Automatic annotation (TrEMBL):
Biased composition (Basic residues): 375-386
Organism: Streptomyces lutosisoli
Name assigned to this protein: Phosphate transport system permease protein PstA
Region annotation (Disordered) ranges: 371-390
Family, as annotated: Belongs to the binding-protein-dependent transport system permease family. CysTW subfamily.
Bilayer disposition of the protein: Multi-pass membrane protein
Primary localisation category: membrane
Name of the gene: pstA
PROSITE patterns per the UniProt record, alphabetical: ABC_TM1
UniProtKB keywords: Cell membrane, Membrane, Phosphate transport, Transmembrane, Transmembrane helix, Transport
Transmembrane segments: 43-65, 71-91, 103-127, 157-186, 206-225, 231-253, 274-296, 347-368
ABC transmembrane type-1 domain location: 161-364
Subcellular location: Cell membrane
CDD domains recorded: TM_PBP2 (cd06261)
Length: 421
């Protein structure tokens, strides 16, 4: 017999697969896109787009189309500037970068217009009232013995400043506790009645100021027989401030993280303690802003003050009797006079009113402090001192002689043989 030898054929080695991707050395290196900062190409694109937009408007308004008007020229220039700037940016960047650059220009333009308008209003008012503001008697005298023909060295707005401060203090004393309490109620006790209250508050936000003045005039003066006074004006101003404070405070309280409330309740704190020690301190900065928004709304009211407080040129420090005037009402009375001195007094009073609002805003920010998670140097030192006191107290509790788990009787000393007695 002959042996048959079976020879297995081994498969031929497969050919190396062709790599679908190019080697890393052939790929261009990744370069992160620059988000902020100023680049040479960006500045050149911005200036070129601005010049091109201006030239396009000159051609349209002067040669190609029968357009006219300064506002139309400005709008056309700005639209052409944005379009050309997007095209120039698209030559170097992708679509996302183009949208980012264009929106950045739009936002910067809006911010510039806003601050320009604010500077124009403040600067124009201060410039027109500079003649009255330069005299010291303008802040210390009233207009009882002065008339429209008297120079600026006679008379002042002391009566209006005192009236504004008095009415605003009365309105704040009414609005702050009621507004914050109502905002806490809307935030912490949801239900049908809270939705009804929120609807009423939103409706009162659009309440005309003359209606608030008429309501207080009809109830307080005509109904109860009281006389016109700063107290009645404070009531009318509080009606205007209350919905603003409630809505702003409600929005701020909604931003407090729910985990803080849950943690306080998990530790066994009742609802009122959670609100008083957790929610309100966390939202303190925002609540101060809400109060300032309401104060800015009420401090500039004129018609409710005229209906409820009347008008007087003399200084009246008693808010419960006699008419009292505010700065907005004094401004209205001064500027309607044709005499230049009275007009200067009116613009000076308006500048003082703006300065008063700024001072109240600064005071509220100081009282409100910083936002949650941010401490001043004084607060940081106070927290560090409290932490050191806590560490010392814990060390005393864990001392050998004061330990809660220490035995009541000390162990006996060992004898010579090593055993206890």
């Amino acid at each position: 017999m002959t042996a048959v030898t079976v020879v297995e054929e081994t498969p031929a080695p497969a050919a190396p697969a062709v790599e679908a991707l190019a080697p890393e050395s052939a790929l261009p290196p990744d370069r992160p896109r620059r988000i902020g900062g100023v680049s040479r190409s960006g500045v050149l694109s911005l200036c070129g787009a601005a010049a091109s937009g201006f030239c396009v408007s000159v051609l349209l308004f002067g040669q190609l189309a029968p357009f006219s008007g300064g506002l139309g020229f400005t709008v056309t220039t700005y639209v052409a500037f944005l379009a050309i700037y997007a095209v120039l940016t698209g030559l170097e960047e992708d679509g996302q970068a183009v949208r980012d650059r264009v929106m950045t220009v739009v936002l910067w333009t809006a911010a510039t217009l806003l601050f320009s308008a604010l500077f124009l209003v403040v600067g124009f008012t201060a410039w027109r009232g500079r003649e009255a503001l330069s005299h010291g008697n303008f802040f210390t005298q009233d207009m009882q013995a002065s008339g429209p023909l008297d120079p600026l060295t006679h008379g002042g707005i002391a009566h209006a400043m005192l009236g504004t401060l008095t009415m605003t203090a009365i309105a704040l004393a009414i609005t702050v506790p009621l507004g914050l309490a109502c905002a806490v109620y809307l935030n912490q006790i949801p239900g049908r009645f809270s939705r009804f209250v929120r609807t009423i508050v939103e409706a009162m936000t659009a309440l005309p100021s003359i209606v608030a003045g008429l309501m207080v005039y009809a109830t307080w003066i005509l109904g109860l027989g009281m006389q016109k006074s700063g107290l009645a004006a404070g009531f009318a101003i509080s009606v205007m401030m209350l919905p603003i404070v409630i809505r702003a405070a409600d929005v701020v309280l909604r931003l407090v993280p729910g985990t803080l409330t849950e943690a306080a309740e998990a530790l066994g704190a009742p609802r009122w303690r959670t609100v008083w020690h957790v929610i309100l301190p966390t939202a303190r900065s925002g609540l101060a802003t809400a109060v300032i928004l309401g104060t800015a709304r009420g401090i500039g009211e004129t018609s409710p003050v005229l209906l409820t407080a009347g008008f007087t040129a003399a200084l009246n420090a008693d808010p419960t009797s006699g008419p009292m005037v505010s700065l907005p009402l004094a401004v209205f009375n001064f500027v309607k006079s044709p005499e230049p001195a009275m007009i200067a007094r009116g613009f000076g009073a308006a500048a003082v009113l703006m300065a008063l609002v700024l001072v109240l805003f600064v005071i509220a920010r100081v009282i409100g402090g910083r936002g949650p998670g941010h401490q001043t140097k004084r607060q940081a030192r106070r927290t560090a001192r409290a932490s050191r006191r806590d560490v010392a107290r814990f060390d005393e509790l864990h001392a050998p002689g004061l330990s809660l788990f220490a035995p009541t009787t000390a162990p006996a000393a060992p004898t010579a043989t090593g055993e206890n007695d």
